[in-house]
Design a protein that fits this description.
Elements (H helix, E strand, L loop, with lengths): L1 H12 L11 H20 L9 E11 L11 E10 L4 H5 L15 E4 L5 E6 L17 E9 L2 E8 L4 E6 L3 E9 L8 E4 L10 E5 L8 E8 L3 H4 L4 E8 L9 H9 L4 E5 L5 E8 L1
Parallel strand pairs: 1-13, 1-14
Antiparallel strand pairs: 1-2, 2-4, 3-4, 5-6, 6-11, 7-10, 7-12, 8-9, 8-11, 12-14
C-alpha cells in the first residue's frame, strides 16, 4: 500500500527538480518540522478514541455437569468470561475488570493466542457474576438425553430453557449424516441431511435453530464416521449446549454489565458468536 503512494509522490515531485534550488530554505525547514511533528503524533497518540473504538468480542461460557440418563438436567459448575481482541490489548483490558483479579490460583485470568482472533483472554468469574435466566428454576439451563443407538450413531434430545438455539458437538467422531426435528407435536416431520463427501471428516458441530419460542425440544439422529471397525468400538465423546443473549426472553449476564461498566470508553463490546452465553454439558457413551 505504501510503495505505490511513495512512487506516485515521487513522480508528482519529479518535474519540480530543476527548480528546487530556487526554493527558499525556510520552506525546507517548515516541511521538516511538519514531518517530525506528524511522525511523533503517529507514534505517541492512541489509535482508539470514543469516536473510533476498538471492537472487543465478549463471550460467557457456562460449564455444566455431564449429562447422563440419571442426570438429564445438568447443574452449573463454573462460568468463564472470554474477551477476544487484537494482539497487545488483552492483558491490559482484562486487568480493568475486577472479576479477572478475583482468583489467585490456576483459574485466574489467562491470555493466549487464538485461531481467528490474535488474543483470547478468559477467566472464571465469582458466583456473584454467574448468569441466570429470569423466571427459570435455579441452575436450570437445559434438559438433554443422549443415547447411543449403534456403533456409530446417536440420538440426542435437547431442550433449552427460554432459548431457540442449541448445539451438538461430537469431538471424537465426525458427522456423516443427520436428521433433525423440533418436537412440538408427535406429527412433526424429520429433515434429513447428508454431509458433502469433501467435508465428511471436518464436521463436528450441529447447530439447531427453532422458528418460534413455543418449541419445546430438539431431536436429532446422527450417523458418525467411525473410520474403521476399531473406531466403531471407541467411546463417543462430545457435548450439548444452548445459547442465550441479553434483553427480553434472554439471560441476565452480570459479567457483561461489568464489562460495560469498567472497560474504557474507547472499547466497543460485541458478541463473539451466535450468543453471548453458551451453557454446555459433556457426554461420553
Amino acid at each position: 500500500m505504501y510503495a505505490p503512494i511513495s512512487l506516485l509522490s515521487f513522480l508528482i515531485l519529479l518535474p519540480l527538480a530543476p527548480f528546487v534550488h530556487k526554493v527558499h530554505h525556510v520552506l525546507t525547514v517548515v516541511i521538516l518540522l511538519v514531518f517530525v511533528s506528524s511522525t511523533a503524533y503517529a507514534w505517541i497518540a492512541t489509535p482508539f478514541t470514543s469516536s473510533s473504538r476498538l471492537k472487543v468480542f465478549f463471550a460467557h461460557q457456562v460449564e455444566l455437569t455431564n449429562v447422563s440418563a440419571t442426570t438429564p438436567s445438568p447443574q452449573l459448575t463454573r462460568a468463564v468470561t472470554q474477551l477476544n481482541l487484537i494482539e497487545g490489548y488483552g492483558p491490559r483490558l482484562a486487568a480493568t475488570l475486577p472479576s479477572s483479579q478475583h482468583y489467585s490460583d490456576d483459574s485466574s485470568e489467562k491470555c493466549e493466542a487464538g485461531e481467528l482472533i490474535p488474543t483470547i483472554c478468559e477467566w472464571a468469574v465469582p458466583p456473584a457474576l454467574h448468569p441466570s435466566i429470569p423466571g427459570a428454576k435455579e441452575d436450570s439451563w437445559l434438559v438433554a438425553n443422549v443415547t447411543r443407538r449403534g456403533p456409530a450413531s446417536l440420538r440426542v434430545e435437547i431442550e433449552g430453557v427460554q432459548t431457540r438455539a442449541c448445539r451438538i458437538y461430537v469431538n471424537s467422531h465426525s458427522i456423516k449424516r443427520y436428521r433433525a426435528r423440533t418436537i412440538e407435536s408427535p406429527q412433526m416431520e424429520w429433515s434429513t441431511f447428508d454431509v458433502p463427501a469433501s467435508k465428511e471428516r471436518d464436521i463436528h458441530l450441529l447447530a439447531l435453530w427453532a422458528r418460534s419460542w413455543d418449541t419445546k425440544k430438539f431431536q436429532a439422529d446422527l450417523e458418525l464416521d467411525a473410520g474403521n471397525e476399531e473406531g466403531a468400538e471407541e467411546p463417543i465423546a462430545g457435548r450439548v449446549s444452548c445459547l442465550w443473549n441479553d434483553g427480553p426472553r434472554g439471560a441476565l449476564i452480570p459479567a457483561l454489565e461489568e464489562a460495560r461498566a469498567f472497560l474504557p470508553e474507547w472499547v466497543a463490546i460485541s458478541k463473539a458468536g451466535s450468543g453471548l452465553v453458551e451453557a454446555s454439558s459433556g457426554f461420553v457413551l
